[in-house]
Amino acid sequence: MTFEIAIEEVGSGGDRTAYAMLPANKNTIIDAMDRAKVFGETHVLIERCDKFPELNGYEFSEEPTVDELNFLAKRLEEISGDTSEKYAYRALLHKPMDTISEAINRTYNLQTIPVYTCKNVYEYGEIVLENEMLEELDDVPDEVYDWLDPDKVGRAMADREGGVFIDGYYAIANSYEPALVYDEELPEQQEDWVFRLEVAAVPENPEDISKVKTEVLTLPSDEKHIQEIAGQLGEKHIDECVLMCFDSQFRR
Asked: What is the dihedral sign for C-alpha 138, 140, 143, 148?
């Protein structure tokens, strides 16, 4: 799952709050609200988002609807499978955004944002020098080129580009132009799954179960993909994993 939302009934003082992991179908969200006895006007907030921590507790100028957050969660689930797109979006989250529309539209055209594997200006400077990315150095003799300081080169380049270093990656989002896909009318998306399972490897200490890494497995799915999910969790077979969360297209 992409993130957890808190749906609090206004005026309840937090006593009536439903929690739901998104993306999920509407019936699952309704069931969560029913169990928490949330029936009146609500306030919705992104409670936790492990893959995109910049969204933790994020407050928009206009409160988004549950449907909008659910659609955003679907988009983030799609792009999180591509490392470059994931870190491109995280870089965009360092720029202010007022509305859920901006958050959704920024999930498109991410391939236009350059992303490099490097954790600091020194490593980025090495990439710049190796690939001759700085025009000012075009006329530098080869025998002098190797003497250049990667730290200074990387810092100068990063300052010029306005890029962002995030968890071992460097993304340059200064010239990004979002696609205008969403403008208060959600595009239709056809669900291609019947069951959605969040699975994890069994931890050595059962008390650590809430901290384990999880992956989402949708069914139907072929055997190869199921084995890939197990492998990502460090297991040989999916039946060696533990089920953390379950969702289906059918109302339970």
From this structure: negative
